[in-house]
């Protein structure tokens, strides 16, 4: 029907150029609004009179709440109409940006008629200048109008690949629902305790009974606001989930601007009417970044082509950064300054004229092109997966900022137990840092004492070991244990988590670990060559082995490369064998599983072309011994490659990451695997692992060449996501 009406398009990122129905966002918007209209009687059912002849109990009926609901639906209807007009007439960006302001007029008028509050509580750091509360007056209405404009257009700007628009809307809607659940009431028969381990405290909040949700603290008004938000978000999740099935790669339908308009307006509605617009903006971190990055092109400083979507290469089936060219007219001084600044921080890729350095080409300023500049060309499906992973990670960080950074959180009076626990969690992280520093200082002193004795070997602080006159010790997380006991303790940890290992990795990293592993294997690609013999150490579940074999088969039709998976834990190997039974490599010589100790390999020397270890080397009793064994079993020219958690280089990210690691990960282990202690160890073991520079030195000490002066810049190691994880490489000469 849409194709017959001329609402069709072609997928620029596909080899085939079939007509694909466009503007299917109209179907989503119509279904969504119909559900909201059908739902109108239910929130107000308790106000219906007992006698059908009496109609509504007019004296008690909350006309204000009904007017808010109806004005919200009216704004969504207007957004749908304006979005569809944009699809049909292809309105230019300069006229498109203010359109959502028109759709927000019903919201703003009802807000004004009901004497909506325009006071804003000032964040703590600025109270010395602005006081505790400031009345913005008309400026607040301007802010709400701008919020609707931003929420609508920010999703529309970050588009152009299959599944991009609807996946953003779906993740943001789920985040809003998760936020609402913290405030909602529960029936008196449904009670549980909300653990604040997530925030680092020991206290718990009882949740259960009407108006008793933990974060609402007995406020009926707060509960009603978030119930209103849920009324609008739940059907939006349902509609987006259904549409995502059809819009996912390879897309069979396109959403058009209509979907962007209606989803953006839905977020503006709940942010304004439920009074959590600042929290809502935290869920738009990728969109805010993309908008700020796009401003030079949106406002004419840098030329803006009609389409800024990534460029498709039909021969390789990969997406590359799309570009804007300056061959006919050189960029202005301001444009040159902006582009060179963005290039310096890695947000755009420049091509310059060799003779005078003039910019002749630059990648377009969008977050999708940034992904391609920073991570390299990739298939369209991988690009949208990267976008989804970024959106999920940013929304997790949004919760950490909103509820975990007490020093920036707006204070309420009286202070709640939750705020007290938030501050306690920050103090707890600082205590961990002090404890770590004191332990390191203590071990340095033991090492220096040991080296003075004639009959005692020197300890190695880099591997987390120290020596005494009687026994050698090492670290098991933050605990100091005899070295000969650590192997059994580590075995116990991974025996406990083996059955839920992949589930917990997904929960802890929101699936990002899969992207890291994909990138790890891709970076090791030696190009077309003969079959390789690979050893994957601490690889019990077979994640890396499977990726190596798939990469060799998919890129080079290689069916001769073999991978031997070695792990000290039989339970992890059991999980790996179970996984490979479902693959084409089962019962083939391409993969085998070996139980063994990485520090005492019972394998011949000079045998393997590639030695990999992913998220495992930090659990070695002696990292130095493990590296020496890796060097021994590799052939000359063989490559050692390690993917491991590392030291976060950005101070703000480090603070948020530490808070998440020590609070959320053990809690997730407790909930999903019923094993808090094992996941507490996993977090602590990450903190005990040497930083990038020190680990690179240890690799060189084992006999590998690591790239020398190029460390941190593609030589010895490559940081992932600000140093949360790093890829280390070394070559046996």
- Termini distance? 65 Å
- Helical content (DSSP H or I, runs of 4+): 40-55%
In total, the number of strands is 22
How would you name the CATH homologous superfamily of the largest domain?
A: Vaccinia Virus protein VP39
Q: Give me the CATH fold name of the largest domain.
A: Rossmann fold
Q: What's the shape?
A: globular
Tally of DSSP helical segments: 25
The structural class is alpha+beta
Q: What integer value in Å does the Rg equal?
A: 29 Å
Beta-strand portion reads 5-15%
**Number of discrete domains:** 4
Detailed description of the structure:
The protein is of the alpha+beta class. It folds into four domains: 225 residues, no CATH class; 88 residues, no CATH class; 65 residues, no CATH class; 240 residues, Rossmann fold (3-Layer(aba) Sandwich). 50% of the residues lie in helices and 13% in strands. The chain has 25 helices and 22 strands. The strands form seven sheets. Strands 15, 16, 17, 18, 19, 20, 21 and 22 form an eight-stranded mixed sheet that branches. Strands 9-11-10 form a three-stranded antiparallel sheet. The protein has a three-stranded antiparallel sheet with strand order 12-13-14. α21 links the parallel β16 and β17. α2 runs antiparallel to α10, α8 runs antiparallel to α9 and α23 runs antiparallel to α24. It is globular and about 80 Å long. The N and C termini lie far apart (65 Å). About 10% of the residues have low confidence. It is an enzyme of class 2 (transferase). Component of a multi-subunit COQ enzyme complex, composed of at least COQ3, COQ4, COQ5, COQ6, COQ7 and COQ9. Its EC number is 2.1.1.201. It is a multi-pass membrane protein; Peripheral membrane protein.
């Amino acid at each position: 029907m849409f194709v017959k009406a001329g609402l069709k398009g072609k997928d620029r990122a596909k080899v085939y150029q079939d007509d694909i129905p466009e503007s299917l966002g109209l179907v989503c918007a119509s279904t969504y609004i119909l559900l909201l209209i059908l739902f109108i009687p239910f929130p107000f059912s308790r106000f219906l009179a007992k006698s059908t002849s009496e109609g509504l109990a007019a004296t008690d009926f909350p006309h204000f709440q009904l007017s808010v609901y109806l004005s919200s639906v009216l704004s969504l209807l207007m957004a749908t109409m304006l979005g569809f007009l944009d699809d049909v007439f292809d309105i230019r960006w300069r006229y498109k940006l203010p359109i959502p302001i028109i759709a927000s007029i019903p919201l703003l008028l009802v807000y004004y008629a009901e004497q909506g509050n325009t006071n804003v509580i000032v964040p703590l750091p600025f109270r010395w200048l602005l006081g505790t509360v400031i009345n913005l007056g008309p400026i607040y209405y301007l802010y709400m109008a701008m919020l609707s404009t931003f929420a609508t257009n920010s999703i529309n700007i970050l588009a152009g690949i299959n599944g991009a628009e609807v996946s953003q809307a779906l993740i943001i809607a789920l985040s809003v629902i998760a936020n609402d659940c913290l405030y909602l009431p529960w029936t008196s028969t449904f009670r549980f305790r909300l653990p604040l381990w997530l925030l680092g405290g020991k206290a718990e909040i009882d949740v259960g009974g009407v108006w008793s949700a933990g974060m609402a603290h007995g406020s009926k008004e707060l509960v009603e606001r978030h119930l209103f938000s849920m009324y609008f978000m739940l059907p939006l999740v349902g509609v987006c989930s259904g549409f995502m099935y059809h819009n996912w790669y390879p897309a069979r339908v396109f959403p058009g601007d209509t979907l962007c308009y209606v989803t953006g307006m839905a977020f503006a509605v709940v942010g304004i009417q439920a009074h959590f617009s600042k929290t809502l903006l935290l869920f738009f971190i990728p969109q805010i970044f993309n908008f700020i990055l796009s401003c030079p092109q949106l406002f004419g400083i840098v030329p803006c082509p009609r389409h800024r979507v990534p460029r498709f290469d039909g021969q390789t089936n990969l997406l590359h950064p799309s570009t804007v060219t300056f061959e006919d007219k050189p960029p202005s001084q301001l444009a040159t300054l902006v582009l060179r600044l963005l290039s310096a921080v890695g947000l755009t890729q420049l091509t310059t004229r060799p003779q005078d350095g003039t910019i002749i080409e630059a990648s377009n300023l969008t977050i999708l092109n940034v992904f391609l500049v920073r991570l390299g060309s990739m298939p369209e499906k991988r690009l949208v997966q990267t976008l989804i992973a970024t959106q999920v990670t940013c929304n997790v960080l949004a919760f950490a900022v909103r509820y975990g950074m007490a020093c920036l959180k707006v204070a309420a009076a009286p202070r709640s137990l939750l705020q007290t626990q938030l501050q306690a969690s920050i103090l707890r992280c600082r205590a961990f840092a002090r404890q770590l520093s004191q332990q390191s200082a203590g071990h340095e002193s033991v090492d220096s004492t040991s080296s003075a004795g004639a009959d005692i070997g020197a300890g190695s602080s880099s591997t987390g070991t120290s020596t005494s006159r009687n026994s050698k010790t090492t670290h098991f997380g933050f605990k100091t244990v005899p070295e000969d006991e650590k192997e059994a303790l580590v075995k116990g940890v991974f025996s406990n988590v083996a059955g839920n290992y992949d589930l917990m990795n997904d929960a802890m990293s929101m699936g990002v670990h899969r992207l890291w592993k994909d990138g790890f294997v891709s970076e090791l690609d030696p190009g077309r060559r003969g079959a390789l013999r690979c050893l994957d150490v601490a690889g019990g579940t077979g994640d890396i082995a499977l990726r190596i074999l798939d990469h060799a088969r998919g890129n080079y039709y290689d069916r001769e490369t073999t991978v031997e998976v070695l792990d000290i834990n039989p339970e992890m190997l059991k999980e790996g064998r179970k996984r490979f039974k479902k693959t084409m490599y089962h019962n083939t010589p391409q993969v085998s599983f070996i139980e063994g100790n990485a520090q005492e390999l019972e394998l011949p020397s000079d045998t393997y072309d590639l030695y990999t270890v992913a998220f495992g080397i930090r659990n070695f009793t002696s990292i130095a011994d493990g590296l020496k064994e890796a060097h021994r079993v590799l052939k000359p020219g063989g490559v050692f490659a390690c993917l491991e958690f590392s030291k976060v280089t950005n101070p703000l990210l480090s603070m948020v990451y530490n808070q998440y690691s020590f609070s959320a990960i053990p809690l997730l282990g407790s909930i999903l695997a019923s094993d808090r202690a094992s996941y507490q160890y996993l977090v602590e073991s990450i903190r005990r692992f040497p930083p990038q520079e020190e680990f690179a030195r240890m690799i060189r000490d084992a006999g590998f060449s690591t790239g020398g002066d190029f460390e941190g810049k593609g030589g010895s190691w490559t940081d992932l996501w600000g140093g949360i994880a790093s890829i280390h490489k070394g070559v046996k000469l």
